[in-house]
Design goal:
Blueprint (H helix, E strand, L loop, with lengths): L5 H9 L1 H11 L4 H32 L5 H30 L10 H5 L5
Helix pairs in contact: 1-2, 1-3, 1-4, 2-3, 3-4
């Protein structure tokens, strides 16, 4: 792979939706870019699932008296997930800059199997 193939891989991490579309539409033959596209989408899904999961649990707990405070306390899990996501994002960006196809921690193996081809 040449050094120009890493630009789309980095764009997949830096510009979430527009970067994904750019890689998906214009760089489909670039294996490195497509790999990092799947990893970036996996990271986004992980962070969205953490927030959505908390929202559902907090909504259910809000109906139980005095459990609203527990729901607010559970938001620290979402904050921890986003801090972890920021570290994983930097790691993925580093892998893209070095032109390495290494799965990201926690969800990388799952993200590699996403049906984005």
């Amino acid at each position: 792979m040449n050094k120009l193939s890493r630009f789309p891989a980095v764009v997949a991490y830096l510009i979430p939706v527009a970067g994904w579309l750019y890689v998906f539409v214009f760089q489909r033959k670039n294996a490195l870019a497509m790999y990092h596209l799947r990893q970036a989408v996996g990271l986004f899904v992980f962070l969205a699932a953490a927030l959505a999961g908390w929202a559902v649990i907090a909504w259910v707990l809000a109906w139980i008296p005095y459990m609203g405070a527990v729901a607010i306390g559970l938001f620290t899990i979402v904050i921890a997930a986003y801090l972890c996501g920021a570290a994983i994002w930097i790691l993925g960006l580093s892998h893209a800059l070095r032109m390495r196809e290494i799965p990201l921690p926690i969800f990388g193996r799952w993200a590699s199997r996403l049906p984005i081809r």
